[in-house]
Amino acid sequence: VSANYSTVISVLNSKFKGSVKLKSSDYHGTLSWPGNNYQEAVVTEIPGHINIYIGDTIVTSGLSTIFPAGEMVGRVTAVNHTPAGSFYELNVLLNQDMNKLTRVYVIRNFTRLEQERLEQQNND
Question: What are the tens digits of pLDDT across the range 37-77?
Fold first, then answer.
């Protein structure tokens, strides 16, 4: 975001990956769009030992500098074990009907650079 411009990426872009969590248990996963239905996304990397129910709420995790924590993303519509069985893959009905989207809010994270520098120091 600058004074006159901003860049965005839609959740309906196959390159998008977002950090989300189950609201009920705080377990984190990665949200992506498989490319077939504009109303559905997939959450992966959810541990396979926890209880997940149809209708559970998915929210933003706040673990990245992109989205603040706790924003509603959608609800679980199906729970599937991965082939190895140690993780779940969740089908999620997106909270927002992306085909009817008319307005969006662009949030400027004023502390993003400080956070990214600190994260980079920890990775070095």
Answer: 999 999 999 999 999 999 999 999 988 777 888 999 999 99
Q: Residue 92, Cα to own-chain centre: how many angstroms? A: 10
Residue 32's CB is within 10 A of a number of other CB atoms, namely 17
Six token digits for residue 116: 């990214």
* Residue closest to 27 by CA, chosen among 1, 45, 15: 45
Q: What is the largest CA-CA distance in the chain?
A: 48
Element (H, E) at 44: strand 40-47
For the record, the structure tokens of 45 come out as: 């990397």
What are 60's strand-pairing partners?
A: 20
Distance, in Å, from the CA atom of 50 to the CA atom of 111, rounded to the nearest integer, reads 34
Q: Is 118 helix (H, G, I), strand (E, B) or coil?
A: helix
Mean pLDDT, residues 68-88: 91
Query: Residue type at 15?
Result: K
pLDDT above 80 (res 1): no
Tell me the C-alpha to C-alpha distance, in Å, between residue 38 and each of 11, 22, 78, 84, 107. Answer: 9, 21, 16, 28, 23
